[in-house]
Amino acid sequence: MRRENFDIHVTNTEWVATGGEPGKPTVAIEFDGPNEVLQSRLAGTDDAVVDAEETDVNYRFHSDENEGVLSITNRITGDFVLELNADADGVLDFIRAARAYGEHTDDDGRYRITVEQDGERLLAHEKSTFLVYNEDGNLVRQHSLIPGGVEL
Predict the structure, then answer these.
(1) Which of 47, 44, 28, 57 is closest to 115 using CA atoms?
(2) Among residues 14, 25, 34, 144, which is most buried (max CB within 10 A)?
(3) pLDDT means per 10 residues in the chain (152 residues)?
């Protein structure tokens, strides 16, 4: 799968800056590549779509720190489910909104991530952790979304 086959759309983040009604931030990823490739990557341990508990969402800065790579990884196998280029400012705004949403609600997930192809939603996960790494692969805690009680 090529990173160019993905588009990313972020919603429910503007309320943080405007003081509006809190809404769960969502990352919607659209894939326009071959269906069979995406289906095989999204397969979990029981050949159904990978569960939320089996995935991690990460962002790694490029050297210029204005862009980076957003990825969903399979926590069980360590394999990348998907990777796409994403603007750093947009990702950091999203994380701020997810952190603020977590402070305004007792909802289990601080954000939602979806993957769609041809208008069909293939994956929809409620998540609370979003890890951010610098270009050297070191965790950047101040930008990461790490729930209380989680040790890394």
Answers:
(1) 28
(2) 25
(3) 90 93 96 88 82 94 90 89 94 95 87 95 95 95 83 57
